[in-house]
């Protein structure tokens, strides 16, 4: 079975500061890794994914995440955040042999202050 | 591409009543998933379909819950004899085949409140 732990439930940060949202997973099989974002009063949106290949993946709005197999981590980073990045961020895993269902972490609320 | 749609967006019901939710996936997607999200938690997997076949159900899905996807297009999730613990956001997602099967697109959700 897979599990996901997001180490911080809330992360307050000032605008233009760097941020890291931490995610660790547990699995006995190979997994695919995802970050989803949920803006206030909106649905979940796929932010970025790791399926294979380069362990560093990037999103179109400046976020990046690095798959670290030895540390079973997939931390999300952004060098300079904007007010508009305020949202709930969810890390998720999918085992390759289980039909694609996602196992989510508890979520991290990113609050960007001016 | 109109995205995944869900209906209704909100439902308030009294304990003991039955409710049914509908999900319309992205038209070319053959996989459809249901999740439940409670306040302060991440979504939890309930069940998924590939075309019209229901391939997996979570232990969270008690006998009061049933899901269908009769023609491999839209899906319904029914909860019988609702309980206050069923209050949650019910999310639907869909995905394609092959490598794109791992990219799930979510609908806006149906918020259920059981009074």
Report what the structure shows.
The complex is a heterodimer of chains A (114) and B (115). Chain A is mainly beta and 114 residues long. Chain A has a single domain, classed as Immunoglobulin-like, CATH 2.60.40. Chain A is 0% helix and 54% strand. Chain A has no helices and twelve strands. In chain A, the strands form three sheets. In chain A, strands 2, 5, 6, 10, 11 and 12 form a six-stranded mixed β-sheet that branches. In chain A, strands 3-9-8-7 form a four-stranded antiparallel β-sheet, with no helix packed on it. Chain A has a two-stranded antiparallel sheet with strand order 1-4. In chain A, strand 10 (87-95) and strand 11 (103-104) form a beta hairpin. Chain B is an all-beta fold and 115 residues long. Chain B is 0% helix and 49% strand. Chain B has no helices and eleven strands. Chain B has strands at 5-7, 10-13, 19-24, 31-37, 44-50, 53-57, 65-68, 75-79, 88-95, 105-106, 110-114. In chain B, strands 2, 4, 5, 6, 9, 10 and 11 form a seven-stranded mixed β-sheet that branches. The radius of gyration of chain B is 13 Å and the shape is globular. The termini of chain B are far apart. The mean pLDDT of chain B is 92. Chain A binds chain B through residues 4, 6, 9, 32, 34, 36, 42-46, 49, 51, 90, 92, 94, 98-107, and chain B through 4, 31, 33, 35, 40-45, 48, 50, 55-56, 91, 93, 95, 99, 101-109.
